Amino acid sequence: MALSNLEKLGILFVAFFIFYCLKFLWHFLYTYAIGPAVHCVDFKSKGKWALVTGCTDGIGKEYAKELAARGCDIVLVSRSLDKLKATAEEIEKEYKVATKIIQADFSEDDKIYENIEKEIAGLEIGTLVNNVGVSYTYPEYFLDLPEWDKLIPTLIKANVVAVTKMTRIVLPEMVKREKGVVINIGSASSIIPSPLLTVYAATKAYVDKFSEGLDMEYSKKGIVVQCILPGFVCSNMSGIRRSSLFAPTAKVFVQSAIKLVGTTTRNTGYLPHAAFVNIVNSIYETANSFGTWLVVRSMENSRRKLLKKYKRQ
Ligand SMILES: NC(=O)c1ccc[n+]([C@@H]2O[C@H](COP(=O)([O-])OP(=O)(O)OC[C@H]3O[C@@H](n4cnc5c(N)ncnc54)[C@H](OP(=O)(O)O)[C@@H]3O)[C@@H](O)[C@H]2O)c1
């Protein structure tokens, strides 16, 4: 029985649909189950020490703990000395590894890097987590950002310069040893529409692109480069205190993200965040004007709430 053109078109459509679904399923299975089982990275074998920036709270602190749990000694680089000492003590006690603390404020000028370089000279750093990051206190229109002249250089220094300079300091020894892991913490805000967080999202787009190029340049030299692009995570920065499926605790988030090292070079790090990014981008791509209206409106609502909270504090 000969098929009509319409029937042939229908079969083609169904075949494409099945192919697309299978590809999608394979991608998720590979990223979150098969890959982490097969490509599980032994961080300690990459080098005795792991260095984490912005490590006394939130995502950075959890990376430091997860790496210590895997046997790495930890270099802690962050702003507040008291918090550094407390974090070091907690990690040494819990994981029986050595720690070294370096106080550095990444919103300051280049001199901090001279000190960091001196402090880590001679340490075999196998893993670098470029986590430190600064955001707005609340979502705001570009021209209305408070303390504009101070905030913008701070965002650029802490989010762009820090990841670049820290990589410049640590990578040469990794390349010499032909092994190492560099994890750069970006943000999902750079891959979904993010009005009222414009400069923050733009600095995180730098982290994403920087990681892509770095991976292409140095994977052949044995270096694993990964960019993690989280959605909302409970932390001081996000201001979210109660965890939910789409805003996990930093611990849950990092336990998921760290398993993906070696499997994927660019990921949100956490399956519900990947779903969130896909949903937002699908709405935006399918109905551009509606998507813009929706996202601006929700950011304005969030601005109103957070500004009220900020003024109360
Ligand atoms: N939380 C989220 O929803 C979310 C989403 C997407 C991406 N991210 C990214 O994830 C990373 C970590 O965010 P988080 O939410 O975990 O932040 P967090 O809980 O606020 O912790 C930030 C850490 O960085 C340190 N820090 C802040 N400013 C610093 C500076 N100028 N110099 C040195 N250290 C500094 C803080 O130390 P002090 O306590 O001493 O200030 C603290 O240890 C950032 O790059 C952020 O952009 C977070």
Automatic annotation (TrEMBL):
Q: Which InterPro entries match?
A: NAD(P)-bd_dom_sf (IPR036291), SDR_fam (IPR002347), VLCFA-Steroid_DH (IPR051019)
Name of one Pfam family that matches: adh_short
Segments forming a coiled coil: 74-101
Give the top-rank taxon of the lineage listed in the UniProt record for this protein: Eukaryota
Residue ranges of the TM segments: 9-30
Q: Entry's PANTHER family? A: RH59310P
Q: What is this protein called?
A: Steroid dehydrogenase
